[in-house]
Amino acid sequence: MLNDLFILSISIFLIIKGATMATKYSAQLAENYRLSKYIIGFIIVAVISILPETLISINSAIEGVPEVGLGTLFGSNVADLTLVFAIIIAISGRSISIDSKILKNNIIYPLLLIIPIALGIDGHYSRIEGISLILTGIVFYIMAFKNSVDEEVLEPIKKENRKKNILFLISSMFILLLGSHFIVTSSTDIANYLGINPIFIGIFIIGLGTVIPELIFSLKSVKKDNDSLAVGDILGTVLADATIVVGILSLINPFDFPKKIIYVSGLFMIIASFLLFYFMKSGKTLSKKESFMLLLFWALFIIIEFSINY
After folding, report:
1. Long-range contacts of the stretch 292-301 (C-beta < 8 A, 24+)
2. Given this model, what pLDDT does residue 237 score?
3. Is CATH 1.20.1420.30 what the domain over 2-309 is classified as, yes or no?
């Protein structure tokens, strides 16, 4: 128990350090490639951020407990769309500015999150459904990437600087991945020691553990006035989890799972996405009042999950 607490402390330090580096070099890389900071967060940082839950989900499916992995994915998504934004605004002490590109996708984004819920409504994901989810995520990312190139011609950037930024960004992502991995493993050991239900572990404990990279990265970004980078990271992670990661799981090993994961966690994820985009559309900011409402929504989600799984 004490050993797990020590590992947890070290892991938190690694994540904070990695997030600091990632914020700096992602912003610089965006300028190098004439991409918006929103897209750098949405694609590059988000893809790296999903690695912990991807590995956890794959291992859980292989070991015959896919509901833990799926619960982790949907649970972390609900936390990303609600709790993470609430914490960022509370700590930063200000509203978050919303980039026009995000508002442009305010209709298609929540609709894309409905697809994995609709396909899994019968409590089963097949390989064909997995391929469909992967293609859905990839197509959306390609469209987002094409719309991200800055039309303004920038001054040439030295290749040395570009390579340096890529190297440090990859290094920071590795640190984030390492820290996140040990946070999840140590948290899981602690939860098992206390005798907590496996599904609730996936939704609440592991799910919260895997959102820490997004939380720290986004918080650092907002403190440096890189709001688009923060929002892009969170939204990109959620979309990748719900489409590409679930698709990979289904492709590797089609699986059955308790329907309540779809009916509860999946439904909360969809409602959270619509609620978040509704708030962001109003005034093109996410205010303290709206973030508090998101926090209450997440608390309701946890209460319901707790009552169902105990």
Report:
1. 292/86, 294/81, 294/82, 294/83, 294/85, 294/86, 295/82, 295/83, 295/86, 297/82, 297/268, 297/271, 297/272, 298/78, 298/79, 298/82, 298/83, 298/86, 298/272, 301/78, 301/82, 301/265, 301/268, 301/272
2. 83
3. yes
